[in-house]
Design brief:
This protein is α/β, with parallel strands linked by helices and 430 residues long. Helix content is 35%, strand content 14%.
Protein backbone atom coordinates (compact mmCIF):
# COMPACT_ATOMS: atom_id res chain seq x y z
CA UNK A 1 0.00 0.00 0.00
CA UNK A 2 2.84 2.37 0.83
CA UNK A 3 5.26 1.43 -1.95
CA UNK A 4 6.40 3.67 -4.74
CA UNK A 5 3.64 4.45 -7.24
CA UNK A 6 4.28 5.46 -10.84
CA UNK A 7 1.06 4.89 -12.74
CA UNK A 8 1.12 5.83 -16.43
CA UNK A 9 -2.38 6.07 -17.86
CA UNK A 10 -4.36 8.44 -20.03
CA UNK A 11 -6.27 10.75 -17.71
CA UNK A 12 -9.52 12.56 -18.51
CA UNK A 13 -7.62 15.80 -19.24
CA UNK A 14 -4.72 14.24 -21.17
CA UNK A 15 -5.76 16.21 -24.28
CA UNK A 16 -5.14 19.55 -22.56
CA UNK A 17 -1.98 21.58 -22.06
CA UNK A 18 -1.62 24.10 -19.22
CA UNK A 19 0.81 27.01 -18.96
CA UNK A 20 1.34 27.47 -15.22
CA UNK A 21 2.51 30.96 -14.20
CA UNK A 22 1.69 30.42 -10.53
CA UNK A 23 3.66 30.02 -7.33
CA UNK A 24 3.15 29.39 -3.60
CA UNK A 25 -0.14 27.49 -2.99
CA UNK A 26 -3.50 28.55 -4.49
CA UNK A 27 -2.36 28.45 -8.12
CA UNK A 28 -0.10 25.39 -7.79
CA UNK A 29 -2.93 23.53 -6.00
CA UNK A 30 -5.13 24.14 -9.05
CA UNK A 31 -2.51 23.17 -11.61
CA UNK A 32 -1.46 20.05 -9.70
CA UNK A 33 -5.09 18.92 -9.75
CA UNK A 34 -5.23 19.48 -13.50
CA UNK A 35 -1.98 17.53 -13.83
CA UNK A 36 -3.32 14.68 -11.70
CA UNK A 37 -6.23 14.47 -14.12
CA UNK A 38 -3.81 14.03 -17.03
CA UNK A 39 -3.14 17.55 -18.33
CA UNK A 40 0.37 18.43 -19.52
CA UNK A 41 1.31 21.19 -17.06
CA UNK A 42 4.28 23.41 -17.93
CA UNK A 43 5.35 25.23 -14.76
CA UNK A 44 7.18 28.49 -15.48
CA UNK A 45 9.65 29.63 -12.81
CA UNK A 46 12.22 32.35 -12.30
CA UNK A 47 15.70 31.24 -13.40
CA UNK A 48 17.30 32.34 -10.13
CA UNK A 49 14.96 31.35 -7.27
CA UNK A 50 12.19 29.40 -8.95
CA UNK A 51 8.86 29.10 -7.15
CA UNK A 52 9.03 31.01 -3.85
CA UNK A 53 8.16 27.90 -1.84
CA UNK A 54 11.22 25.95 -3.01
CA UNK A 55 13.08 27.77 -0.21
CA UNK A 56 10.33 27.46 2.44
CA UNK A 57 12.20 25.04 4.64
CA UNK A 58 13.01 23.20 6.69
CA UNK A 59 12.27 20.39 5.86
CA UNK A 60 13.87 19.49 2.50
CA UNK A 61 13.37 16.85 -0.17
CA UNK A 62 16.25 14.34 -0.04
CA UNK A 63 18.20 13.22 -3.11
CA UNK A 64 19.07 9.65 -4.05
CA UNK A 65 21.91 9.63 -1.52
CA UNK A 66 19.68 10.82 1.30
CA UNK A 67 21.18 14.32 1.32
CA UNK A 68 18.87 17.35 1.59
CA UNK A 69 18.30 19.24 -1.64
CA UNK A 70 17.43 22.92 -1.96
CA UNK A 71 13.74 22.10 -2.56
CA UNK A 72 11.39 22.21 0.42
CA UNK A 73 8.79 19.71 1.53
CA UNK A 74 6.24 22.53 1.18
CA UNK A 75 7.05 22.83 -2.54
CA UNK A 76 6.56 19.09 -2.99
CA UNK A 77 3.01 19.25 -1.62
CA UNK A 78 1.49 20.87 -4.71
CA UNK A 79 3.86 20.52 -7.67
CA UNK A 80 3.77 16.95 -8.92
CA UNK A 81 2.70 16.09 -12.48
CA UNK A 82 4.37 19.22 -13.85
CA UNK A 83 7.30 19.96 -16.12
CA UNK A 84 9.45 22.87 -14.95
CA UNK A 85 10.96 25.48 -17.24
CA UNK A 86 12.73 28.66 -16.21
CA UNK A 87 12.08 31.91 -18.07
CA UNK A 88 13.04 35.47 -17.21
CA UNK A 89 9.86 37.32 -18.13
CA UNK A 90 11.48 40.67 -17.39
CA UNK A 91 13.35 40.29 -20.68
CA UNK A 92 11.62 40.82 -24.04
CA UNK A 93 12.93 37.47 -25.30
CA UNK A 94 11.42 35.75 -22.29
CA UNK A 95 8.08 37.45 -22.85
CA UNK A 96 8.10 36.43 -26.51
CA UNK A 97 8.89 32.83 -25.53
CA UNK A 98 5.95 32.73 -23.12
CA UNK A 99 3.64 34.10 -25.79
CA UNK A 100 4.80 31.30 -28.10
CA UNK A 101 3.98 28.77 -25.41
CA UNK A 102 0.59 30.35 -24.67
CA UNK A 103 -0.30 29.99 -28.35
CA UNK A 104 0.16 26.22 -27.97
CA UNK A 105 -1.75 25.85 -24.70
CA UNK A 106 -5.41 25.34 -23.81
CA UNK A 107 -5.24 26.89 -20.34
CA UNK A 108 -3.11 29.51 -18.61
CA UNK A 109 -3.22 29.95 -14.82
CA UNK A 110 -1.55 32.94 -13.13
CA UNK A 111 -1.56 34.50 -9.68
CA UNK A 112 0.27 37.77 -10.23
CA UNK A 113 -1.08 40.98 -8.76
CA UNK A 114 -4.05 42.41 -10.64
CA UNK A 115 -2.88 43.98 -13.92
CA UNK A 116 0.78 43.06 -13.37
CA UNK A 117 1.12 40.96 -16.51
CA UNK A 118 0.01 43.77 -18.84
CA UNK A 119 3.51 45.24 -18.82
CA UNK A 120 4.91 41.91 -20.01
CA UNK A 121 2.39 41.46 -22.80
CA UNK A 122 1.07 38.37 -21.01
CA UNK A 123 -2.38 39.68 -20.04
CA UNK A 124 -5.59 38.05 -21.21
CA UNK A 125 -6.37 40.57 -23.96
CA UNK A 126 -2.94 40.17 -25.54
CA UNK A 127 -2.88 36.38 -25.37
CA UNK A 128 -6.50 35.94 -26.44
CA UNK A 129 -5.67 37.84 -29.64
CA UNK A 130 -2.93 35.26 -30.30
CA UNK A 131 -4.92 32.22 -29.12
CA UNK A 132 -8.71 32.84 -29.00
CA UNK A 133 -9.28 29.37 -27.51
CA UNK A 134 -7.13 30.11 -24.48
CA UNK A 135 -8.81 29.74 -21.07
CA UNK A 136 -7.02 32.25 -18.85
CA UNK A 137 -7.50 31.90 -15.08
CA UNK A 138 -6.37 34.69 -12.77
CA UNK A 139 -6.12 34.03 -9.02
CA UNK A 140 -5.66 37.05 -6.76
CA UNK A 141 -6.47 38.04 -3.19
CA UNK A 142 -9.33 40.41 -4.03
CA UNK A 143 -10.28 39.84 -7.66
CA UNK A 144 -9.86 41.77 -10.90
CA UNK A 145 -12.13 44.70 -9.97
CA UNK A 146 -13.29 46.69 -6.96
CA UNK A 147 -11.55 49.08 -4.54
CA UNK A 148 -9.16 46.40 -3.21
CA UNK A 149 -8.30 44.81 -6.56
CA UNK A 150 -4.70 46.05 -6.67
CA UNK A 151 -3.87 45.19 -3.06
CA UNK A 152 -1.61 42.23 -2.33
CA UNK A 153 -3.06 39.67 0.03
CA UNK A 154 -2.44 36.30 1.60
CA UNK A 155 -4.38 33.48 3.22
CA UNK A 156 -4.20 34.86 6.77
CA UNK A 157 -5.43 38.29 5.71
CA UNK A 158 -8.39 36.80 3.89
CA UNK A 159 -9.24 34.44 6.76
CA UNK A 160 -9.45 37.57 8.89
CA UNK A 161 -11.27 39.84 6.44
CA UNK A 162 -13.63 37.12 5.23
CA UNK A 163 -15.03 36.35 8.69
CA UNK A 164 -13.52 32.90 9.26
CA UNK A 165 -11.23 33.87 12.14
CA UNK A 166 -14.07 35.62 13.98
CA UNK A 167 -16.00 32.34 14.27
CA UNK A 168 -12.99 30.04 14.74
CA UNK A 169 -11.58 29.34 18.21
CA UNK A 170 -12.81 28.54 21.69
CA UNK A 171 -15.81 30.33 23.13
CA UNK A 172 -15.04 33.41 25.20
CA UNK A 173 -14.63 32.94 28.96
CA UNK A 174 -17.75 35.06 29.51
CA UNK A 175 -19.68 32.46 27.50
CA UNK A 176 -18.32 29.52 29.47
CA UNK A 177 -15.44 28.71 27.13
CA UNK A 178 -11.67 28.63 27.37
CA UNK A 179 -11.22 31.96 25.63
CA UNK A 180 -8.17 32.81 23.55
CA UNK A 181 -9.77 35.01 20.93
CA UNK A 182 -10.05 34.50 17.18
CA UNK A 183 -7.85 31.74 15.69
CA UNK A 184 -6.83 31.03 12.12
CA UNK A 185 -7.15 27.62 10.52
CA UNK A 186 -3.60 26.21 10.45
CA UNK A 187 -3.96 24.89 6.90
CA UNK A 188 -4.01 27.77 4.39
CA UNK A 189 -7.65 27.00 3.70
CA UNK A 190 -8.25 30.17 1.66
CA UNK A 191 -5.53 29.16 -0.80
CA UNK A 192 -6.70 25.56 -1.03
CA UNK A 193 -10.33 26.58 -1.59
CA UNK A 194 -9.33 29.12 -4.22
CA UNK A 195 -7.27 26.47 -6.00
CA UNK A 196 -10.25 24.14 -6.01
CA UNK A 197 -12.60 26.91 -7.20
CA UNK A 198 -10.15 27.74 -9.99
CA UNK A 199 -10.11 24.09 -11.05
CA UNK A 200 -13.92 23.93 -11.12
CA UNK A 201 -14.13 27.13 -13.15
CA UNK A 202 -11.49 25.96 -15.63
CA UNK A 203 -13.29 22.67 -16.24
CA UNK A 204 -16.56 24.57 -16.79
CA UNK A 205 -14.80 26.87 -19.27
CA UNK A 206 -13.39 23.86 -21.14
CA UNK A 207 -16.95 22.51 -21.43
CA UNK A 208 -18.24 25.91 -22.60
CA UNK A 209 -15.49 26.01 -25.24
CA UNK A 210 -16.91 22.86 -26.81
CA UNK A 211 -19.97 24.95 -27.74
CA UNK A 212 -18.49 28.35 -28.44
CA UNK A 213 -15.03 27.51 -29.74
CA UNK A 214 -13.69 30.37 -27.61
CA UNK A 215 -11.76 30.62 -24.39
CA UNK A 216 -12.48 33.16 -21.67
CA UNK A 217 -10.97 34.82 -18.62
CA UNK A 218 -11.70 33.44 -15.16
CA UNK A 219 -11.45 35.67 -12.08
CA UNK A 220 -10.89 33.83 -8.77
CA UNK A 221 -10.45 35.82 -5.54
CA UNK A 222 -9.24 34.41 -2.22
CA UNK A 223 -11.62 36.73 -0.36
CA UNK A 224 -14.62 35.55 -2.42
CA UNK A 225 -13.68 31.93 -1.76
CA UNK A 226 -13.46 32.27 2.01
CA UNK A 227 -16.68 34.30 2.25
CA UNK A 228 -18.52 31.62 0.24
CA UNK A 229 -16.94 28.93 2.46
CA UNK A 230 -18.84 30.36 5.43
CA UNK A 231 -22.24 30.16 3.72
CA UNK A 232 -23.98 27.93 6.28
CA UNK A 233 -22.93 30.19 9.18
CA UNK A 234 -23.65 33.33 7.16
CA UNK A 235 -27.18 32.07 6.44
CA UNK A 236 -27.91 32.27 10.16
CA UNK A 237 -26.39 35.76 10.32
CA UNK A 238 -28.59 36.90 7.41
CA UNK A 239 -31.71 35.72 9.26
CA UNK A 240 -30.83 36.93 12.76
CA UNK A 241 -28.47 39.83 12.13
CA UNK A 242 -26.29 38.42 14.92
CA UNK A 243 -22.66 37.33 14.68
CA UNK A 244 -22.30 33.52 15.04
CA UNK A 245 -20.35 32.78 18.25
CA UNK A 246 -17.07 30.94 18.54
CA UNK A 247 -17.80 27.49 19.95
CA UNK A 248 -14.44 25.72 19.72
CA UNK A 249 -14.89 22.04 18.88
CA UNK A 250 -18.64 22.13 19.54
CA UNK A 251 -21.39 22.61 16.94
CA UNK A 252 -23.68 25.61 17.05
CA UNK A 253 -26.76 23.52 16.24
CA UNK A 254 -26.02 20.04 17.63
CA UNK A 255 -25.35 18.75 21.14
CA UNK A 256 -23.58 16.60 22.02
CA UNK A 257 -21.23 17.02 19.08
CA UNK A 258 -17.56 17.78 19.73
CA UNK A 259 -14.47 16.75 21.67
CA UNK A 260 -14.65 15.17 25.12
CA UNK A 261 -11.89 14.43 27.63
CA UNK A 262 -11.22 10.79 28.50
CA UNK A 263 -8.97 9.23 31.13
CA UNK A 264 -5.97 9.46 28.80
CA UNK A 265 -6.80 11.96 26.07
CA UNK A 266 -9.64 13.26 23.94
CA UNK A 267 -12.10 11.90 21.39
CA UNK A 268 -14.95 13.10 19.22
CA UNK A 269 -18.53 12.08 19.98
CA UNK A 270 -21.66 13.12 18.13
CA UNK A 271 -25.40 12.51 18.37
CA UNK A 272 -27.23 14.07 15.45
CA UNK A 273 -30.77 12.98 16.32
CA UNK A 274 -32.89 11.76 19.24
CA UNK A 275 -32.38 8.07 18.50
CA UNK A 276 -28.60 8.48 18.57
CA UNK A 277 -28.82 10.47 21.79
CA UNK A 278 -30.78 7.75 23.55
CA UNK A 279 -28.42 5.04 22.29
CA UNK A 280 -25.42 7.08 23.43
CA UNK A 281 -26.81 7.35 26.95
CA UNK A 282 -27.40 3.61 27.03
CA UNK A 283 -23.91 2.84 25.69
CA UNK A 284 -22.11 4.92 28.31
CA UNK A 285 -24.19 3.51 31.16
CA UNK A 286 -26.22 6.66 31.84
CA UNK A 287 -29.72 6.03 30.41
CA UNK A 288 -31.26 8.51 32.85
CA UNK A 289 -29.53 11.40 31.05
CA UNK A 290 -31.81 10.90 28.06
CA UNK A 291 -34.93 11.54 30.15
CA UNK A 292 -33.82 14.68 31.96
CA UNK A 293 -36.02 17.60 30.84
CA UNK A 294 -33.02 19.84 30.11
CA UNK A 295 -31.57 17.15 27.77
CA UNK A 296 -34.74 15.64 26.34
CA UNK A 297 -34.66 17.23 22.87
CA UNK A 298 -31.98 18.83 20.70
CA UNK A 299 -33.22 22.35 21.46
CA UNK A 300 -33.00 21.58 25.18
CA UNK A 301 -29.49 20.15 24.90
CA UNK A 302 -28.35 23.18 22.93
CA UNK A 303 -29.81 25.49 25.58
CA UNK A 304 -28.02 23.57 28.36
CA UNK A 305 -24.84 22.77 26.44
CA UNK A 306 -22.39 23.65 29.25
CA UNK A 307 -24.19 21.44 31.77
CA UNK A 308 -24.43 18.59 29.26
CA UNK A 309 -20.71 18.80 28.50
CA UNK A 310 -19.83 18.64 32.20
CA UNK A 311 -22.00 15.56 32.69
CA UNK A 312 -20.49 13.74 29.70
CA UNK A 313 -16.91 14.72 30.53
CA UNK A 314 -17.36 13.30 34.05
CA UNK A 315 -18.42 9.96 32.55
CA UNK A 316 -15.85 9.80 29.74
CA UNK A 317 -12.95 10.64 32.09
CA UNK A 318 -13.58 7.39 33.97
CA UNK A 319 -12.20 5.22 31.13
CA UNK A 320 -9.43 5.51 28.49
CA UNK A 321 -10.11 6.62 24.93
CA UNK A 322 -9.87 3.17 23.36
CA UNK A 323 -12.52 1.77 25.71
CA UNK A 324 -14.98 4.41 24.58
CA UNK A 325 -14.09 4.07 20.91
CA UNK A 326 -14.77 0.34 21.11
CA UNK A 327 -18.00 0.90 23.05
CA UNK A 328 -19.35 3.50 20.63
CA UNK A 329 -18.34 1.43 17.60
CA UNK A 330 -20.27 -1.54 18.97
CA UNK A 331 -23.33 0.70 19.30
CA UNK A 332 -23.02 2.15 15.80
CA UNK A 333 -22.64 5.70 17.12
CA UNK A 334 -20.64 8.52 15.48
CA UNK A 335 -17.20 8.79 17.08
CA UNK A 336 -13.55 9.30 16.19
CA UNK A 337 -10.12 9.52 17.78
CA UNK A 338 -8.22 12.81 17.42
CA UNK A 339 -5.29 11.50 15.41
CA UNK A 340 -1.82 12.89 14.92
CA UNK A 341 -0.36 12.42 11.44
CA UNK A 342 1.54 9.26 12.40
CA UNK A 343 -1.79 7.81 13.48
CA UNK A 344 -3.51 9.08 10.34
CA UNK A 345 -1.15 7.17 8.09
CA UNK A 346 -1.46 4.04 10.23
CA UNK A 347 -5.28 4.30 10.02
CA UNK A 348 -6.67 1.20 8.26
CA UNK A 349 -9.02 3.19 6.04
CA UNK A 350 -6.33 5.72 5.06
CA UNK A 351 -3.98 2.83 4.25
CA UNK A 352 -6.67 1.05 2.24
CA UNK A 353 -7.35 4.23 0.24
CA UNK A 354 -3.59 4.61 -0.39
CA UNK A 355 -3.52 8.26 0.65
CA UNK A 356 0.25 8.22 0.97
CA UNK A 357 2.07 8.41 -2.33
CA UNK A 358 5.81 8.01 -2.96
CA UNK A 359 7.22 9.27 -6.26
CA UNK A 360 10.79 8.86 -7.51
CA UNK A 361 12.65 11.85 -8.91
CA UNK A 362 14.62 10.93 -12.05
CA UNK A 363 18.32 10.30 -11.60
CA UNK A 364 19.15 13.34 -13.75
CA UNK A 365 17.31 15.47 -11.17
CA UNK A 366 19.30 13.98 -8.30
CA UNK A 367 17.04 11.02 -7.62
CA UNK A 368 15.34 10.44 -4.31
CA UNK A 369 11.87 9.49 -3.25
CA UNK A 370 9.29 12.20 -2.50
CA UNK A 371 6.47 11.34 -0.09
CA UNK A 372 3.20 13.12 -0.86
CA UNK A 373 -0.52 12.98 -0.14
CA UNK A 374 -2.36 11.28 -2.99
CA UNK A 375 -5.31 12.78 -4.84
CA UNK A 376 -8.70 12.08 -3.23
CA UNK A 377 -10.36 11.83 -6.66
CA UNK A 378 -11.49 8.35 -7.69
CA UNK A 379 -12.69 7.34 -11.18
CA UNK A 380 -13.91 3.99 -12.48
CA UNK A 381 -12.58 4.45 -16.04
CA UNK A 382 -10.05 7.31 -16.15
CA UNK A 383 -8.08 7.20 -12.90
CA UNK A 384 -5.74 9.87 -11.64
CA UNK A 385 -2.20 9.28 -12.92
CA UNK A 386 1.10 10.08 -11.25
CA UNK A 387 3.60 10.73 -14.02
CA UNK A 388 6.09 13.21 -12.60
CA UNK A 389 7.51 13.80 -9.14
CA UNK A 390 7.79 17.49 -8.19
CA UNK A 391 10.43 18.64 -10.68
CA UNK A 392 13.80 20.22 -10.09
CA UNK A 393 13.89 23.86 -11.18
CA UNK A 394 14.24 24.14 -14.96
CA UNK A 395 14.54 20.38 -15.37
CA UNK A 396 12.45 20.37 -18.54
CA UNK A 397 13.74 23.45 -20.35
CA UNK A 398 15.01 21.67 -23.41
CA UNK A 399 12.30 19.00 -23.54
CA UNK A 400 9.42 21.51 -23.44
CA UNK A 401 10.92 23.73 -26.14
CA UNK A 402 11.49 20.71 -28.36
CA UNK A 403 8.15 18.99 -27.70
CA UNK A 404 5.82 21.99 -27.62
CA UNK A 405 7.50 24.54 -29.90
CA UNK A 406 9.55 22.25 -32.15
CA UNK A 407 12.77 24.16 -31.48
CA UNK A 408 16.11 22.62 -32.41
CA UNK A 409 19.18 22.63 -30.20
CA UNK A 410 20.70 25.75 -31.76
CA UNK A 411 17.48 27.72 -31.12
CA UNK A 412 17.31 26.47 -27.55
CA UNK A 413 20.95 27.38 -26.93
CA UNK A 414 20.22 30.90 -28.17
CA UNK A 415 17.64 31.28 -25.38
CA UNK A 416 20.00 30.38 -22.54
CA UNK A 417 20.25 34.03 -21.47
CA UNK A 418 16.54 34.13 -20.61
CA UNK A 419 16.24 30.58 -19.28
CA UNK A 420 19.26 30.16 -17.03
CA UNK A 421 20.51 32.13 -14.02
CA UNK A 422 23.01 34.78 -15.09
CA UNK A 423 26.28 35.38 -13.32
CA UNK A 424 26.56 38.81 -11.66
CA UNK A 425 27.82 41.32 -14.20
CA UNK A 426 26.86 39.16 -17.18
CA UNK A 427 25.97 41.05 -20.32
CA UNK A 428 22.21 41.47 -20.78
CA UNK A 429 20.45 39.49 -23.50
CA UNK A 430 20.12 41.33 -26.79
Amino acid sequence: MFGTMMVIMSGPLSHLRVLDLTRVLAGPWCTQTLGDLGADVIKVERPDTGDDTRTWGPQWIADGEGRPTTDSAYFSSCNRNKRSITVDMAKPEGQALLRELAAQCDILVENFKCGDLVRYGLDYATLAAINPRLIYCSITAYGQDGPYAERPGYDLLCQAEGGLMAINGHADVADGGAGGGPVKVVIAVTDVLSGLNATIAILAAVEARHRTGRGQQIDIALLDSIVQFGANQIATYFITGKQPPRVGNAHVNLAPYGSFKTADGYMIVGAGNESQWRRLCEAIGAPALATRPQFAAMKDRNAHRAELTRELDAIFQQRPTQHWLDTLAASGLPHAPINTYDQVFAHPQVRHRQMRLDLERPAEQGGGRVAMVASPLRFSDTPVSYRHAPPAKGADNRAVLRDVLGKVDAEIDALRAVMEPQEPGAAPAR
